[in-house]
Amino acid sequence: VREGGARSVMHSYTDTDGVPAAADEDLLTGLLRDTWGFDGTVVADYFAIAFLKTLHGVAADWAGAAGTALHAGVDVELPNVKTFGAPLAEAVADGRIPEALVDRAVRRVLAQKVALGLLDPDWNPVPAALDGADPDDPDALRGRIDLDGPQNRALARTLAEEAVVLLSNDGTLPFERPRRIALIGPNADEPVAVLGCYSFPQHIGVRHPGTPLGIELPTLRETLAAEFPDAEITVARGTGIDDGDLCGLREAVRLAREADVALLVLGDRAGLFGRGTSGEGCDAESLALPGAQQHLLDTLLDLETPVVTVLLAGRPYALGRAVEESAAIVQSFFPGEEGTHAIAGVLSGRVNPSGRLPVGVPRGPGSQPGTYLGARLAHAGAVSNIDPTPAFAFGHGLSYTRFDWNDLAVEVQEAPTDGEFALAFTVRNTGGRSGTEVVQLYLHDPVASVVQPVQRLVGYTRVALEPGEARRLSVTVPADLASFTGRDGRRVVEPGELEVRFAASSADPRLTARVALTGAERHVDHTRRLHATILQEPVAPA
């Protein structure tokens, strides 16, 4: 809201301490508007106002739900008018809901429309590209606007290439001109495997069977054929995403045995409210791979052919033996329309992977994926027989080159609680090809007035380096980044010692500095400094 300049805010479905967000005046008016100064519109998440009656039980009828939401600060009901229609009008007419609440919401909506020019006399909702076309004739409209032009595709490819994460690699990747690739798995030849649940084909298209996707979605089979034109690529599904059908297992094993490498493509089918294995309303009781995919994976791992595991999935899954036994693991989540080109590029080495995990990959199916933010009791220790340590930590990701981090200098080691620390160090590409290192900055607060996470990510930067090239990183860490919510509910910066950790992941600190905050305890608010500053300067060759 503060930095991005958002002009519209959607509240969540959740309740905090028994108060639903749609009914929370302290949140939507007190904090958002009175404290932060937001003057745009607040819109309801779909059906959330009706949920005040049906799910939360804090309203007796539709009018009560509408009045509660208006009083809290909600201006627009979405996706349709249920409570803000006749029930609200009747309640205003008989005096149960003050008309001033309606006026307030209407004023905000109209002010936003004025600012956007939507009430200008010459405004036309039909875009210029459709001038002269009959808006009621789909054939006349089709093809008039290109929503997926070359610039968009190029951007999508860049995003995908920088997002693919190489989790493990025994040296099998990148492939060195393989003659025979066995491409196996339910997502090996599936176009929509790269899309999430709110992509148009998976959100709306699935309701209209037989309708073309309307967008080019090359499968991994197609992009591999283009990436390795001299290789023989054989394909077997093996099993479905979640059908448990293993009738294709024998064919998958045969092809894998005959190949130089088995490329196993597993994961999810994105959907909404039970129509997929991942997506909104598609929750998981276990983080085991859906269906019989783990059985397929383990069967191929039993063979002598090296197995490279690729995951097109909406959540991290426990991979069992594959963590130790797979020749390599590539995690791409849902990489978008150019995702299979990016994956093929990583497999061939055309793309040097630089993606990093935004969530930990669990070691066992009973674990919840972690963002690394656990306090000490959430880590492995003597108080529990369960070790929650992930197989791959938050921030983890490998490269095809090597980076050295050295020459840490702490230029400002002590700072007041309204000051800042200054540090510098060097990152050098010591490998044989260009690559990008992702430097992550964590803070560790060993003693605080309330329990703290063991560490918190407070900054990061991508450092692109040619072989032998080095950069000197100058880092400024404001004391505000050490703030946390204290016992009285206010955010506080406390004096005391801290650790600044420069790391390749939350489990891989490379350089650590001890610093200290001095002076009085200091309370901060939404105007506090939110970012560390990381500047990069080239280092002259030795």
UniProtKB/TrEMBL annotation:
SUPFAM superfamilies, A to Z: (Trans)glycosidases, Beta-D-glucan exohydrolase, C-terminal domain
Give the Fibronectin type III-like domain ranges: 437-506
| Name of the molecule in the record | Glycoside hydrolase family 3 C-terminal domain-containing protein
Enumerate the UniProt keywords alphabetically. Hydrolase
Give the family from UniProt: Belongs to the glycosyl hydrolase 3 family.
GO terms (molecular function) for this protein are:
hydrolase activity
Q: Which InterPro entries match?
A: Cellulose_deg_GH3, Fn3-like, GH, Glyco_hydro_3_C, Glyco_hydro_3_C_sf, Glyco_hydro_3_N, Glyco_hydro_3_N_sf, Ig-like_fold
On whether ATP-binding is a keyword of this UniProt record, the answer is no
Top-level taxon in the UniProt lineage: Bacteria
Q: Where in this chain does the entry annotate a coiled-coil region?
A: none
Q: Which PANTHER family does the record associate with it?
A: BETA-GLUCOSIDASE
